[in-house]
Amino acid sequence: MTRIKNRLPVKPIDISIVVPVYNEESNIRPFLERLIDVMIKMGVDYEVIFAMDPSTDKTEDKITFEIERNKKVKLIKLSRRYGQPAATFAGIRNCTGEYCVVIDVDLQDPPELIENLYNKSLEGFEVVCAKRKSRRGESTVKKVISYLGYYIIDYLSDVEIPRNTGDFRIMSRKVINSLSELNETHGFLRGLVGFVGFSQSFIEYDRDDRYQGHGKYNRYFGSLRIGMNGIIGFSTRPLQIMTIMGFLLSAFSFIIGGWYVFQKMVGLPLTPGLSTTILVVTFFAGIQLISLGMMGEYIGRIYEEVKRRPMYIIDRKINFED
Prior knowledge:
- This protein folds into two domains: 15-140 and 159-214 and 310-318, Spore Coat Polysaccharide Biosynthesis Protein SpsA, Chain A (Alpha-Beta Complex); 238-306.
- Helices cover 48% and strands 17% of the residues.
- It has helices spanning 28-42, 59-69, 84-93, 114-121, 140-156, 173-180, 189-196, 220-232, 237-266, 274-306; strands at 15-21, 46-52, 73-78, 99-102, 127-135, 165-172, 200-207, 314-318.
- Helix 5 (140-156) packs parallel to helix 8 (220-232) and helix 9 (237-266) runs antiparallel to helix 10 (274-306).
């Protein structure tokens, strides 16, 4: 007779730390040193999941070396460079913790703040964001772009997206499961977390400068692309604004036409028309191109969504049970 062995229930992991990386070989070890010290101080069971776009430096070698030293460190390598949002979602969908923290490896977001985020979440909040009070080490241009971007996204979006917050946050298993059920092609985490809802709070902090190197993911163009995903993916207001502008500009053209008719009827000398014509034509041409471009952005995203391609493809996973 076959004897059935009684297995003890596996204790779930308390916190999963998801870290998207690309060409960050110099920051892997310093980041883990500070992060692991925090986890030991908190006394929680944890896992660190590096979600990596294929890197051209020794980032993968550095992570595999750390896996040999600490079995709580794991690696997901994507088949090609899909970008930070896709890498982040690859980590979220493969984490097993009761809570998940998303954080960058460059140490601009201090790992020591995780304890405060975790304690705040234990008060009953499903999501706790880290809100930036200051942004050290960033140029004035980057700060202005960030401020305007957050303002526009917050104003236009149909869901609540807190200003001055990045992806650095802690989320409960309820939120993790809800995010994993979404099939978005563009993984704008801040907007998707707002879409799924649940109770949210935040903790303010001063953002540090990068520990080493410079940002590989979100330079100016990358930030603009992610910002467009935040606007177009969560609001149709730009289309409504285009409609309103169309009516206003049509009314403006009627006013100009009425003015010329009035001048002709009362015998006033007609306003010289060359410069006015050039100005009006170029103005309307610019508005038309902007409107067509905005519609193209929406149509392009519809095209990508209906194809139902996956957000990412995993090449291999290291140190996962499956």
